[in-house]
Structure formats: structure tokens, C-alpha cells
Amino acid sequence: MKLANYKNNAVGKEELVLTTDEELEKELNAMVSQAKSSKEKEGKSVLGDIVTIDFEGFVDGVAFEGGKGENYDLELGSGSFIPGFEDQLVGFEKGAEVDVHVTFPTSYHAENLAGKESLFKCKIHAVKEKVTPILNDEFALMYGIPTLDQMKIILRHQMDAKKKEDSMNSYMVKLCDVIVSSSTFDIDEAKLKARIDEMVAYYENAMKQYGTDLKGFLEMTNQTLEQFIDSQIKNEAEKSLKIDALFDEVAKEENIEVSEEEINHSLNMIKTQYQMSDEQFNRFKEEKAKEIRFEVLRSKVSQFLYDNNN
Asked: How far apart are CA 303 and CA 240, in angstroms?
């Protein structure tokens, strides 16, 4: 390979704007919202309450498939059920049996129900009100931090670190593009095939998260696996190998190495973060030490390139 100049490139670093008071307040409010809980209450349900219900739906007196549920927690006013459904459960206490009359929207996804009038027989097992924590020292203690003021300092530091990381990552993408495009690489075909296989496996797993698979995706988009690889994967696989080569060469040229202390520091941080037992940690260390070394080296080379370019 012939590596282009990897120092003093004028790519353009964006000015970093650290966390503002408004951003900090927004993040704290989001944490409060996420920490909301509910508790059972006496009395009638109101909008915003959560009712635990059994329900069964009927059209023309006949129960329909998918229209039955048990011990379902429904927030009244959330709009998660058919329009008009939740409103009819307002004003009832625990133990009430309620007939809910609604009409399915004409655009409803199940054609056999679209536009149909229906009856849902509901039994209310519990009425719960939402509890919003107060943003104070007690709230901070929920996260193991003694005071709210300390929580704000820690959170601001974390948000600033995230901004710095995002800014650096964005810059490194641009910098690597500049260096790679000006360099010459010899791509090993065996390594390229292995990287393509890795990326195909990644796509396969990612698609499973959305209830499909690669075969179904290819059929839906009317393309073969080979066409998908040529259009979506091969260029990215080649680029990733070139970036790997770039990092390896810079590490060699600049004598950037990883010490055992650095590896152990990273491993111990992971152990603390995931609260691993000694047995779990030892197994993780044995399985992942090589990957950790690779990641630490990448991080050090990234920092070198960031510091030595503009």
C-alpha cells in the first residue's frame, strides 16, 4: 500500500459547543419522565390514569380474532386504542364492567374490521394514577448520587463527553475519507470476502429485529444476494478494510502500542459498568481481551490523527 499524508490535513474541525443550561434541564426532565411510576388508587378513573382491563371485542355479536386481551394496562388518553375507546372507560372504579361501543376506522389494517361497528366488553381490575418524581436530592439518590447538585455536575460532564465524542467521530469520518481517497491499497480478496460475509450476517441479524429476514428483503426488493452485495455491501467492505489498513500503518509508523495496563483499565471499566462477578469477568477477559486490545489501539490512533490534523 502507499499511504497518503496523514498529518496536517485541513479537513475542518467544527467548533465544539458544550452543554447549555437549557440542554441540561431538558435531559433532567426526560429522566424524570422516564422515572414515572404508577400506583393503584381509590375512586373513578380520569384521563391520564392507567386502567388494567380484560376485554373482548365483538362484531355483529361474534367475537373476532385478535380482539381479546387480559390484564392489559391502558393509559386513558394515550390514543393507543381505537378512537373513542379510551374515553368510554373514564369515570369508572375498580371492578366495573363496561360495554364500549366503537367503530373501526375505514382505513383499519384488518379489512374484515374496517368501518365496522363493534362492542368491547371490558372488566376493570385496577385504576392507577401516574406518579411523577420530584427533581430533588431524593431523585438523585435513585441513581446512587447523594445530591441533585452533584447529579447535575456529573450529567453535564457526561453530556459534554458525548458531544466531544460525536464531534470527533464526525471529524474522523471526513478525515479518513480524505486520507483513504488519496492512498493506494492492495485489497486481499480473502479478507474482502470475509468482511462481506460479516456484513451480510450483520444485515441478516438487523432485519430480524424488524420481523423479516434477508431472503424476504431480497424478494421484496426484487434482487439477488449477489446484486445486493454489489450495490450495498462491497464498496463499504472495501472501505472498511482500507480504514483498517490506514490505522494499522499509522500505528506502525508512529510506534503506537497498547500496554497491559491500558487493556486492564478498559476491562475493569467494563466489569464495573456491567457489575460482573469475578467468574463472569474472567470468562469475559479470556474471550474478549483480543477485541479490547484492538479497540484501545483504534482509540489511540484515532486520537493521534485527530490531534495531528486540522
From this structure: 18
